[in-house]
Each structure stands twice: as C-alpha cells, then as structure tokens.
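Not sure how to ask, but would you mind making up any protein sequence you like and the tokens describing how it folds?
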Amino acid sequence: MRQDQSPASGWVLGLAMMLVAFNLRPALSTVGPVLGLIRETTGLTAAGAATLTTLPVVCLGLACALAAPVIRRMGPDLGVLAGMALVALGLALRGIGDLPMLFVGTAIAATGIGFANVLLPALVKRDFSATAGPMTGLYTMTLCLGAAAGAGAAVPVERALDGWSVALAVWSVPAVLAAAAWFPFARRSGPARPPRPGRLLRDPLAWRVTAFMGLQSSLAYILFGWLPLLLQGRGLDPLHAGLYASLATLNQAPGALVTATLAARARDQRAWIVGIPGMTAAAFLLVALGADELRVPAACALGFGVGGCFGLALTLIVLRAADAASAAGLSAMAQGIGYVFAALGPLAFGLAHEATGGWGLAGVLFVAITLTAIAAGLPAGRAQTVAAAEPVAG
C-alpha cells in the first residue's frame, strides 16, 4: 500500500480492482459453450470457429503492446477505465447478432481486456507492494471466477433469452458497473514511466518471463475455445458440456490464489513451474481421453492447474520486476508478445481436430505446449530481477 493511502481507501481500491478483474474473461469464456449454436444458426465453418477463438488472443497481444504508450499518455489508472469502457462496448456490439458484429465486438472487447491485463500488475506493484503475492492471487482468482461465471451461464442464459447474441451481450452490464466503480480512481497519475521497450527486449530474463506467459496463455485459450466442444464430442449435450467447462474454469480461482500466494513466498519458483503445468497436462489427458467416472476430478484438477499457471505467470511479472515502472514494462512485453504467440495455440488445436476428426493429435499438441512452457519458464523461476526503470523526461 502506498504511504499516502489509508487502510480504508486501500480496501476500496482493492475491491474496485476485483470488479475490474471479474470482467476480464467473460468476453472470452462465453463463446465456447454456444459456439455450436453459433455455427448452426450462422453457417460458421470450423475454420471460422478457429478464427473466432484465435481473434481475441491476437487482439489481447496487440493491446498489450500498446499499453506502454497508454501509460505515458494517460497513466495506468485512467488506462484501466478506458479498457473497461472498451470491454463494455465490444460486448454490447455482439448483441447485434450477425457474424461481422460478433467478430468486431470480440476484437474491441479483447482490446480493452488487454489494456487492463497489462496495467493491473503494475498497480499491484505500486499500491500493494507489501502484499503483492496475495493481491496477485486475489485478483487472478476473481478473474477466474468471472471466466467460470461466463462459461457456466452461457447456455442457460441463451435458453432464457432465446438467442446467443443476447446471451453474449448481457455481459456488458457488469462491465459498465466495473467501469463505474473504477471511475473514482481514474486519475492522471501513476508510477514512474515504464522502461524503454528496447531495454527489456535485450534482457534475457524478460524474454523467459514472456515465453512462459505466452505458452501458459495458449493452454488457457485452448480450453476457453475448445473444451465445451471436446466434451460434446465425447457424448455430452451442450448444457452439460458447458457445466463441466464451468467446473474446470471455477477451479481456476483456487488454483490462481493458492499458487500465486505460495509461489511468491518461496525462495524461487522453479518447483512450481514444473509441478503446476505438469499437473495441467495430466488432467487434460484424463478429460479428453480418460474414463467417464474420472471426468469430474479431472476437470477440477485441470481448472486448478490452468488457474495456477496464470497466477504463477503474473507472479513472475511482479517478482522479476525491480519496481512498479519495470512491472508495467515487463507486463506489457510479456503479455503483448506472449498473447500474440498464444493465439497460435487455439488455432493449431482446432486445425488438428479438424484434420483428424478426433482429439488425439490435439491432445498431443496440448502436452507439447505444456512441456515447452516448463522448459522456457524454468530459468525465469530463479530469484532475480530485470533492471529498474530509468526516468524518462517529458
């Protein structure tokens, strides 16, 4: 907590941060459960569906790459507000109900999510430096709860409102509420300016954090886009497939909280970088190929692992940064470059499924990405930091 911040105002800021975090995944997790219905009613091809699940990840990466100029012009607090406004607008546009607006709205919402994704770690480093691990876990947990709510409610809301477009657009309401809650904090001030991109691009540690962020994100977006259809391919109806996906997503919350909190207290994070992704890969294979009676525990373990990977990636950003400005720059690099490459995961996963008609090759791809994430992330687990940001005039 900053020295000029009272405990009461710190709690209010923390709650507002949680509201923002809750709205950073429903735009992504609500599409998968109704993707089959979208294809049925619009004629969207399998390649189009793969593009739809890939588009938000690309937009996330591009938005993250623009975060440093946003910090310089607006400050991180106003940048978060701008991000939430874009999320609300994009979700509302998806309610129009045609394919062009579905893609446009998804792109706009993902751009807003990208801004907030980058800026929140810098705000944690600035405002909650003494409790960075628990705060990272809390907002990551809340983010995962938002994802679970979107995945679980998508089909019931679609049936209640009689239309996939309305079921997707209704999530603009909590986004507007989050923007309103954040508005009092949208002041034009913030941490020191982020380091120049060239400095981080020459830092091997920054690249290792970036690689782990991108690869673990690829796993998460594969599940957001394809887990419901995978379960439907194993014989579940859309409602029950969505509920299993929601169960997995719901368990991301304790995975993020526990992993981020405990990993931040460890001397270094290498054991966590091996254990959590390894558990994720094993659980995915059980969900995709295992016996039906193992589906519930496997879905819970899968969600815990994916949430833990994300919480661990954000914890690495906070711990490997020397100060708040470095955290902003490292977050922009890790998420900007990482998400662009993460977009290849759901695309390749969908194409592997389309090529074989089954989930075996796609499952091999999932495990390969996991092993690559472990190999890339291990050096980032050592207790070291990128250089502190240098002041920039102007």
Summary: The chain has a mean pLDDT of 84. The chain is about 80% helix and 0% strand. The radius of gyration is 19 Å.
